[in-house]
Design goal:
With about 230 residues, this protein is mainly alpha-helical. The protein has a single domain, classed as 3 helical TM bundles of succinate and fumarate reductases (Up-down Bundle). Helices cover about 80% and strands about 0% of the residues. Helix 2 crosses helix 10 and helix 7 packs across helix 10. It starts with a helix and ends with a helix.
Length: about 230
């Protein structure tokens, strides 16, 4: 068991498992958020589903996975820099690390982490945290109101979209790299995995960016039908 935490392969496996877990969370979170685009009431129902005990209990697990992912990202980057000088985030196949995202995973991760703190103060602190602290459900701010209040300032919407771009770059490398670690690293599959990574990353980016833009439009009354949830 100790080898999993100390060996080079073990560390990459931990990074891969926690990374894939977070990607699944993004897909679930994005699916719930996407309901807001089609009908705000559906979005409220989705938020109520996320508040169920069976889902809420996953929050500490998610937080633990994210913390482990961050710790090992910094540790791997440190050991790689120390051992190889200017090389970053080394992978088994050198040709797989030629992309810009692969060479800047730590920087992208820091950007994602920094804005995540900003995001948590907008949503998690106003909903889940207050619920954990015993605030009655009926006294919590409506998810729709919170969504539109948050994205009403244009600069906040812009910052969020830039954050989604950083997430996109991070995922375009992280997704295929995780599967690469589990053995899908032959010449036949590497191209396919990279293509799938771009598709998955683009889907996640498109969902979150679209939600932010629609919330901005509705909050500022730029489209009457968007305000009624019919577009």
């Amino acid at each position: 068991m100790a080898n999993i935490f100390t060996s080079s392969i073990g560390k990459k496996v931990i990074m891969s498992v926690t990374g894939l877990f977070l990607i699944l969370f993004l897909l679930l979170h994005g699916t719930i958020n996407a309901l807001y685009i089609f009908n705000p009431e559906w979005f409220v129902s989705g938020c109520e589903f996320m508040a169920l005990p069976i889902v809420t209990i996953m929050v500490p697990v998610l937080a633990a996975g994210f913390i482990i992912h961050i710790i090992y990202a910094f540790y791997l980057s440190y050991t790689n820099l120390k051992a190889r000088g200017n090389q970053r985030y080394a992978v088994a196949n050198k040709s797989a690390s030629d992309g810009w995202a692969a060479k800047n995973m730590l920087v992208l991760g820091i950007i994602v982490l920094g804005f995540l703190a900003f995001h948590l103060t907008h949503f998690w602190a106003e909903m889940q945290l207050k619920e954990f602290m015993g605030v009655a459900h009926e006294d919590l701010i409506s998810p729709v109101t919170l969504m539109e209040t948050t994205f009403k300032p244009w600069w906040v919407t812009l910052l969020y979209i830039l954050w989604f771009v950083a997430v996109w770059f991070h995922l375009t490398h992280g997704f295929w790299s995780a599967l690469h670690t589990f053995g899908w690293n032959n010449n036949k599959w590497i191209g396919r995995l990279k293509c799938i990574s771009y598709i998955v990353a683009t889907i996640i980016f498109a969902i979150f960016a679209a939600v932010a833009i629609v919330a901005f439009i509705r909050a500022n009354g730029f489209c009457s039908c968007c305000c009624t949830g019919c577009c």
